[in-house]
Amino acid sequence: MKAAAFDYVRPDSLRETLELLEQHGDDAKLIAGGQSLVPMMAMRLTRPALLIDINRLAELKNLKRSAGSILMGAGTRQRSVEDDTALHAQLPLVKCALAWVGHAQTRNRGTVGGSLVHADPSAELPLAALILDARLHLKSKAKGERELPVSEFFLGPMFSDTGATECLTAIEWPVWERQGTGAAFDEVAIRHGDFALASAAAQVQVDAQGVCLRANVGAGGVDGVPRAFPAIAERLVGQRLDNDDLLRSVAVDATATCEPGNDPHASAEYRRHLATVLMERVLRQAAWAAAASFEGSK
Amino acid sequence: MSKIKLTSIAIKVNGVVREAQVEPRTTLVDFLRDTLFLTGTHIGCEHGVCGACSVLVDGDPVRSCCMFAVQADGLSVTTVEGLAPERGKLSAIQDAFCEKHAMQCGYCTPGMLIACHALVERNPHPDEAAIREAISGNLCRCTGYQQIVDAVKHATGAKSGAHD
Ligand code: FES
Ligand code: FES
Q1: Per-residue pLDDT of chain A (298 residues; tens, 9 = 90+)
Q2: How far is residue A66's CA from residue A214's CA, in Å, rounded to a whole number?
Q3: Which atom from ligand 1 is nearest to the alpha carbon of A105?
Q4: Which pick of A24, A179, A228, A246 has the fewest CB atoms within 10 Å?
Q5: Would you give the DSSP letter of residue B35?
Q6: Which ligand is nearest to the CA of B145?
Q7: Where are the beta strands (DSSP E) in chain B?
Q8: What one-character DSSP code corresponds to residue A186?
């Protein structure tokens, strides 16, 4: 299958990109890594008249590290995050999530921002962003800059709050204190690297006695958008996390709020089952990782 | 109907700069096969599922059906034809594929070779998990993968002289 014909332009700056978007609106589409867009074009699920290639915009690849957060250019390749070990220490959940994202061949092209804008409900990076409560920076020529929490960004399957003339420019990732923090990601897919039937992610912080100070958990593939459950996870705060009944009750109650779909790959019931098992599991693994973070520093 | 618009590109393919006029919608794999007649790179699915079309772009493995040729303008591409050190010779990985019978019909082989070369470039002594991860984006309907894993082990073991 071949894509329908389109015009192609590779602007040299973000300013030029935003001008082109302003001019062409819905007829134009930004192409970053293209790992979802090109297949969709090949299948003619989408046929933009103009493709604006932002792959080479250095402005979208900056990385600013500060104590409490990391501002990551939206065009940062998934592979470069995977290779940045300093970043792993600050964003352990992102590291865990990336191990499940596609394959080496797709991570070499795929970008962090592209995955968020694409908003696949079973994709890993949107779920990680949600758990960490990342903030998104968008820009358009007419309206300038806009910032919003990722919890307001995903509107439905493959549908994010990105205006036709807007470009996601950066993702602001909150960094948790290193000591005491642990993260985990797990999923079930038909083959490794395929989109998940269901996925789960958690990040927790404990004190030296193993008492939980902070926690969040979420699941992908079990609703129209990835889901995080900060209010339910709040129950863990003040508790020791080596309590399987407690972790299970969080997982069960969180799953109860999900409305997974039925499709030929998996029934809604099976997805619900997976979400419960996986959320309990990632909470336990995150708690282990959090406890282990003290051992390394002694 | 609007008439077909062509864009000029120059891509370094296996060390040689190749200039051409392409339609923007031409994928990199179609450009390699149909314009340059480098038919070593295979096409399976044309939408990023099988990995048969893998090539190296600036040294990193990518799926050439998920990239348009215009996007590779100014970049350097290595196809399976460019993996051998010289004409008539095989790379260590290619040789190990023969040695360990890591192919049957050969459809997946160019993509597998690209993935394995890229792996060894990053990690000269991969363990089995790393090998399986590196070829996880490439489908093979014949071998059951085991011989491919064996071939990479053979090639990397032989290189280090440490085992095998
Ligand atoms: S032909 Fe490119 S991944 Fe199948
Ligand atoms: S050898 Fe036939 S597909 Fe791999």
Answers
A1: 899 999 999 999 999 999 999 999 999 999 999 999 999 999 999 999 999 999 999 999 999 998 899 999 999 999 999 999 999 999 999 999 999 999 999 999 999 999 999 999 999 999 999 999 999 999 999 999 999 999 999 999 999 999 999 999 999 999 999 999 999 999 999 988 888 999 999 999 999 999 999 999 999 999 999 999 999 999 999 999 999 999 999 999 999 999 999 988 999 999 999 999 999 999 999 999 999 999 865 5
A2: 21
A3: 3
A4: A179
A5: I
A6: 2
A7: 7-13, 16-22, 54-57, 60-63, 76-78
A8: E
Q: Which three-class secondary structure state does DSSP give residue A26?
A: helix
Q: Which domains, ranges and CATH numbers included, belong to chain B? A: 7-81 (3.10.20.30), 92-159 (1.10.150.120)
What phi and psi values does residue A65 have, to the nearest 5 degrees?
A: -100, 130
**Structural domains for chain A:** 7-53 (3.30.43.10), 59-174 (3.30.465.10), 181-290 (3.30.390.50)
Nearest-angstrom CA–CA distance, A41 and A39: 5
Q: Answer yes or no: do B25 and A4 touch at CB < 8 A.
A: yes
CA pseudo-torsion sign A281, A282, A284, A289: positive
Q: Look up residue A41 and give its two tokens.
A: 């074009």
